[in-house]
Protein 1
Amino acid sequence: MITKYLHFNEHDLSLAGELIRAGELIGFPTETVYGLGANALDEDAVKKTYAVKGRPADNPLIVHIYDKSQVYDIAADVNDYAKTVIEHVMPGPITIVLPKQGLIKGIVTAGLPSVAIRMPESTEARQFLRAAAVPVSAPSANLSGRPSPTTWQRVREDMDGRIAAVLCGAPCRVGIESTVLDLSRTEPIVLRPGAVSAEYLSELLGIHVGVLTDPTSKVNSPGIRYKHYAPKVPMVLELDDDRDKLSAYYDQKAAEGCNPVLWVQNPLRFGGRNAVGMGINAEAAAANLFETMRKLETQYDFIIASFCWRKNTLYDGPASQGVLDRLMRACGHNII
Ligand code: AMP
Ligand code: MG
């Protein structure tokens, strides 16, 4: 199949809409990561999503909308917590999980009685969704297990020849996948940390919102179930920004004949060694996370990442839990 590369003009947007309604897959930008969109009401189209990505069938997709009213067509019970989130955080980098209506089939939700719904803030994403005129199911537009794409060029890398089209938009502002907030249980809980923090949601909803998986716990994290976001070369993670420890680890790897790289907050502290900046705060780290992973894996053969996210450090911010979660998964929980 020859993949079309489309732009944000009237002609290409209406073509993108036609392709979606004809059951084709389209890569499209959002503020979090690029998505791989299909008509959520077309079971055959949704089936292709799993095949093209090599995604396990028990990993559900998110249904994307362009108008808040669509929530009421898709979810069976929009409770008060959901109404508050819809009012204050949507559109934005958040996904809410609610009991589903019959319109959305089990293939989208991996057989679950609940459905995940997201309204992107990105105008490009919403232009596409409006042109599609149907709810669009989408996972991230990477091959399963690879770091999520945050530019259209990375979508091309993974999806060229496999899907009908890619909408070439801006690089993603947030850079990590949306916060997934489950509102289908008695108490709201974050299933996947993202740029909207559990702390913020606790304040907004007036109830403690926990995070299902403590990202530092090896046992609980779904990263054990599915290898996620992994670069092609081995990676370890250090959590204290301990210069001596990082330098010693690097020197050891170099002595073993590796060409390692330090991926740290301040590369200038590691003069003479390969070192790359992770970003000045958690939000900058999130924005560049997957793109840097994909760059480093082509230039080095061992990644030594450091992310110190304690209170009152530079990496203490709304996106810090999300960044930590992705780093933990990328290194396969290999903490040094
Ligand atoms: P992706 O954005 O590619 O990582 O895929 C969507 C993610 O959304 C899934 O891996 C789940 O973590 C989450 N998700 C989607 N639907 C549901 C659901 N019905 N219940 C719980 N989590 C969901
Ligand atoms: Mg994904």
Note: The pocket of adenosine monophosphate (ligand 1) is lined by residues 59-62, 97, 109, 112, 114-116, 139-140, 177, 180, 182, 191-192 (CB under 6 Å).
Protein 2
Amino acid sequence: MPKSNQYFPTIKKINYEGPETDNPFAFTHYDENRVVAGKTMKDHFRFAVAYWHSFCNENSDPFGVGTRIFPWNKSKDPLENAKFRLEAAFEFFTKLGVPYYCFHDRDLGPEGQTIGESEKILAKMVSLAKQHQENTGVKLLWGTANLFTHPRYMNGAATNPDFEVVCHAAAQVKAALDATVELGGENYVFWGGREGYMSLLNTDMKREMDHLGTFLRAARDYGRKIGFKGSFLIEPKPMEPTKHQYDFDAATVIGFLREHDLLDDFKLNIEANHATLASHTFSHDVMLAAQNGLLGSIDANRGDDQNGWDTDYFPTNLYDAVEIMMILLEHGGIAPGGLNFDAKIRRNSTDLEDLFHAHIGGMDTFARGLLIANEILTNSDYRELRDGRYRSFDSDDGEKFAKGNLTLGELRALAIVNGEPEQRSGKQELIENLVNRFIR
Ligand code: XLS
Ligand code: NI
Ligand code: NI
């Protein structure tokens, strides 16, 4: 049972009640101990709450101030409020029953007047967070540094044209790595918020990208030195807040990691809404990372078909969840990463309990997605329909080609011998119908 009942007094622990329940404060599909494909649901998803959206973001937008009223802002002193916020967050995590949370350094506590003071504030908040973690069993999925809010980062952090700004970014990453290690964080994320440009006319892209590589190697070296054993994760995003971001999408980041010799330590944190901003589907970027053995973690949210920005809706699209869970089931899961709800309730969702509805919905969507994905993979012709299309590469000359053992001339000769290929249908509509048949 949750230890604290102060900030969400009307809400009790959220339990699984099954698909027939009409209780909006119960799970319909997420049953943490239920075993599916050899693992509990809890282990499949490793759900995490994003501290910033759920506990810091008052939901202001470019046209208006925030609308959320936080009962944990009880004091005039921001440091005091940071402590209350932490209490509220852990009450929420335990009532919801999520195993993990994620934070930026500046979510936990405010920035001080000097680097030393900021480090002290963060260390203080980390020691409190550690106590809460010990009391509740909730763990840290990943930590990160906020290198985009402060005005000094307006031209970027690690890619800033001014070396002095790069040093400030380094100080922040060093402290955020210390915090992550102290709290047993299983991953460390770099989301390059302003690592990009607004205009190429005033930008030396080559230099900036080289600086980013150098900066990440220095961070990796420091992390390993202080005993961080987890994965470093890059979170691709093509734009917003800058016009162009260097970590554009999964493919771009994989190329960058290879070029800068970072593949042994870095993986990817794929966010749904970032993939769609890059004109991909969510599943495209998850698949690309997974098939390269580089799927580190997922920021589970949803964009909007009509809006071209990072709307960060909570994930409610069942079809997306099915596709993602099919990929995870076929590629060995997401651990030591997880599914982090990098999502925010809408500006007019002003009841405190709306935060519960949002997370319950996201967790149930993925739980349903897992059940359906597992059915499709184990009880249908799906795999055969997909893999069968490539059968001609499994033996004989096709296999020789796939292994790189046929020249272009030999391939030409085979084309002549074999004549015009028979048509083979891609069966897309059949497969789409098959998937829909299992969504029930
Ligand atoms: C913003 C990003 C951010 C990262 C963490 O678009 O998704 O929330 O996940 O810095
Ligand atoms: Ni994110
Ligand atoms: Ni995002």
Note: The chain has 16 helices and 14 strands.
